[in-house]
Amino acid sequence: MATTRGYGGAKYFGYTLVGCYEWLRGARTKVDWHKAIWDSWILPKHRFMGWLIAHKSLHTNSRLKGFGLNVDGMCFLCGQADETQEHLFFECAFSRRRKVKNAMVLSAMYHVWQQRNKSRIEQLVLRPSRIALLINDAMKRRVKERDKRKLNT
Ligand SMILES: [Zn+2]
User: Fold this and answer.
1) Which letter does DSSP use for residue 82 in this model?
2) pLDDT tens per residue, range 108-142
């Protein structure tokens, strides 16, 4: 008969809910990337996208085409190749632009340095997630400025 030993630990006819769930879910293998993706310093939306990428589950055009959707499968950014994850992040002319990567890295370094100075002068330390938002906002502003300049020339 049932004996209670805390949530999930209750035994029903010799079985536990946790045991049943694990049996239904099946065997799981540990992966070496989980700590890099589920790090609390990473914004939740970035963590989720990292998890999708790790499982090759981003809804790229190529993948949607494979599902039978009426899309051409080409990359939205360059229009030169099938939009797979590998293309999008490693091969696409858009993502390979050194200027974009450099701008992101230097923006991150700038904001970390700014926070270092604030903590020294004002004894104020922002949460890493807040710093990440500042970096994101700075990059968005820069891209908008660049787009405006391109439209005006
Ligand atoms: Zn592309």
Assistant:
1) B
2) 888 888 888 888 888 888 887 888 888 888 888 88
CA of 4 to the centre of ligand 1 (A): 56
Distance, CA 87 to ligand 1 centroid (Å)?
A: 6
Instruction: Indicate the pTM of the whole model.
Output: 0.53
β-partners of residue 74 are: 82
Residue 84 alpha carbon to ligand 1 centre in Å = 9
Mean of pLDDT over the chain: 82
Closest CA to 84 of 110, 108, 63: 63
Alpha-helix runs per DSSP H in the chain = 17-25, 34-37, 44-54, 61-66, 85-86, 93-96, 98-121, 128-152
Question: Residue 3 has what pLDDT?
Answer: 44
CA of 93 to the centre of ligand 1 (A): 6
Residues 10, 17 contacting (CB under 8 angstroms): yes
Between the CA of residue 141 and those of 9, 48, 129, 148, what are the distances in Å?
51, 24, 18, 11
Does the CA dihedral 41-43-46-47 come out positive or negative?
positive
